[in-house]
Design goal:
Distance between the termini: 24 Å
Strand order of the largest sheet: 9-1-10-11-14
Structural class: alpha/beta
Helix content: 25-40%
Number of helices: 15
Largest sheet: 5 strands, parallel
Length: 411
């Protein structure tokens, strides 16, 4: 499933306006770094950066950390045991996607159902861009050429620019990011380093900005990880470090597009009048090994709603495993079993403004009139934002309530 960029733009302005009420926008006193003809340019840059940090702290603003969604973190790859010079942008890269077969191979995960472990293809290492300093360079644009964002691949860039212009923020000073490998399931032992680092980044961001509490802004799949993070941390930690958790288009009850990905391939929003340049059968082979597809599968909240319709049977959320076995998606079935260990989210214990779009036709039922899984399905639409159904995005409002208790724990 791809949460289309249009969804993000539709709520970005609302999110920023909400942040304006959640934070203090006192004007920061600017101070030019002391210059010296003898000082090296790196020292001058460091001094300027430190002054921006001090100014941000003095302004009393609540720093912001951005948690991207599915496809929202830029990835780079290199041969194993490579040097830093050998890392090359992978997601997204128009130039690498020209060789589509190689691109799909490089983007693949190898899933071992027996051990429930994920690996990249042999000989390839993959990491997030800006995933060590947690700056915004890996989440502002999906593709860049010579460091400049490619038009049409904006992700968080508009939101960052808004905060800079209207709020006096400085990217990479009081706006940071928590990129992650979005191919992976959010709840998995291999994702443990993300949660450890996320806690540390929030602490450091708060302390570097005068102890002001952090506003977490999560989009799409990033809400799964943010909800997990907040649920696992003690309340006194959250009271000290978190001002608010702004949930944008949170598919916490899942989306049928993940099922479509595993049955016939999901075009990731890249279509024009129903036509897509992407070979769906190749996408399907890749997506069946993504843990994120299982993590965002529809939950029990869909009840008896028909997710998939065929000439011989209609399938609800209870029939997802049967479907995967029927089409031979054995890895999708195993991933689903491992990732759907929970059905409800614990209350995060912080203020949670929930932002989502409505009144846009959104895929609800996949219809295979001929029962051919290689064909792109027809759709019965429901209300939503174009990608996330309202049934799923409004779940955020349930778990935002302080007294909300889940039916079952997922920790």
């Amino acid at each position: 499933m791809l949460l289309t960029l249009g969804t993000l733009y539709a709520v970005a302005a609302v999110a920023c306006l909400l942040l304006a009420f959640a934070v203090s926008f006192a004007a920061a006193k600017s101070a030019d770094p002391q210059s010296s003809l003898a000082a090296a340019s790196t020292a001058a840059a460091a001094a300027a950066h430190q002054q921006r940090v001090v100014a941000a702290a003095d302004a009393g603003r609540n720093p912001v950390v951005l948690v991207p969604g599915l496809i929202g973190s830029s990835l780079e790859s290199a041969p194993l045991s490579s040097t830093d010079a050998e890392w090359d942008r992978l997601w997204f890269s128009v130039t690498r996607a020209v060789n589509m077969d190689k691109f799909f191979d490089d983007m693949s995960l190898v899933y071992d159902a027996a051990t429930d472990t994920y690996a990249n293809i042999t000989g390839l290492a993959i990491r997030t861009i800006d995933g060590t300093d947690y700056n915004t360079g890996g989440v502002d644009f999906l593709d860049k050429v010579l460091g400049v964002g490619v038009v049409g691949t904006d992700y968080f860039n508009n939101m960052i620019k808004y905060l800079e212009k209207k709020g006096g923020y400085t990217r990479d000073v009081d706006i940071k990011a928590l990129p992650f490998d979005w191919r992976m399931p959010g709840i998995h032992p291999q994702m443990a380093p993300f949660y450890e680092q996320a806690q540390a980044v929030i602490e450091q961001l708060s302390e570097a900005n005068g102890g002001n509490k952090v506003v977490i802004v999560a989009h799409s799949y990033g809400n799964h990880l943010t909800s997990k993070l907040l649920a696992m941390l003690p309340q006194d930690w959250k009271d000290k470090y978190v001002k608010a958790y702004v949930a944008i288009a949170a598919p916490l009850a899942g989306s049928v597009e993940t099922v479509e990905a595993c049955l016939s391939g999901q075009d990731m929003g890249m279509e024009l009048f129903g036509w897509t340049p992407l070979p769906l059968h190749k996408l399907r082979a890749v997506q069946r090994n993504y843990g994120s597809m299982g993590a965002m599968a529809p939950t029990h909240l869909w009840g008896d709603f028909t997710l998939v319709s065929t000439p011989w049977k209609n399938y609800t959320y209870k029939g997802i495993l049967e479907l995967y076995d029927e089409v031979g998606a054995t890895n999708s079935s195993a991933i689903y079993k491992h990732t759907r260990m929970f059905e409800d989210y614990d209350a995060p214990g912080v203020w949670v403004p929930c932002l989502y779009g409505t009144e846009v036709k959104t895929r609800g039922t996949l219809v295979y009139p001929n029962g051919n899984w290689d064909d792109k399905p027809d759709y019965v639409f429901v209300d939503g934002d174009g990608t996330v159904p309202t049934l799923s995005s409004t779940y955020c409002e349930r778990c935002a309530k302080p007294n909300f208790q889940p039916a079952s724990s997922w920790l």
